[in-house]
Amino acid sequence: MNQIVTTGMICLDDPLGFTYRISAIEFILREDESFSYVFTPNYSVIDLLTGELFQGIPGLDMDLRKPRYVRENMTPVFISERTPAENREDLWELLADAKMDYLNRLEWLIRTNTRYSGDNLYVVRWNPDEAKQCVNYTRIEQAQPRSAATIQQLLRIICAGDDVSAEDFSINDSNRREYYSLLMSLYRKEKSYIEKKRVLGIRESAAQGKYRGRTPVQIDDTKLIEVVSKYRSGKITAQEACTALGVSRSTFFRKISERAIPSSRNKEGSRG
Q: What is the pTM assigned to this prediction?
């Protein structure tokens, strides 16, 4: 029986900018109009995350630790709450925006620039044939000679679920969490050390009368609320929000935290 298969990867970004590949998701549509959704969680990556960052995939009982979650001829909650339904009035406008001529909800979720406001999960296109890579550590050191940069690159690989090989060690699913904890601790310490050096340099310059202080980033509250609302409704990405406000990613998220801007969850799901 002929079938169409659409495959994506559910991802999550943390405040430090690392991307975690949470689970592959596959939509199979057969010529008799029957269909399946298949989730394949990446538990070695999921186990890296705290409950604050990741509360599970909506509609799936992750405590069961199933290698695959299959939904036959039913749309899973993860899809239904963040994609347009067939009876939505502006469906054809949404499809046109995504350059689609029929509704494939997973395909739409992959193509759209909108983000669901209920959690931090999003979906990108994924090629199962390129699922897992093993990166040579020597190449990382050559490309990133500084210690902090090397640690950062290793963490990016670990969070993505890929492996690392070296002459005297390797990083894979069996020890991913241990290396992640070690490297994340080193990375935070390195960032803290660099920040302390920066502050010390400022103090020394100030003592010599050479430093007048950096002007704090001033953001109009109305504009901040407007941009955050667009970000949380999925109309713009975090990077686009940062550009609109003229701030860094860390400043953007800090401003949200400082202002305690409430999240407005879009019940229809498809525009948020």
A: 0.72
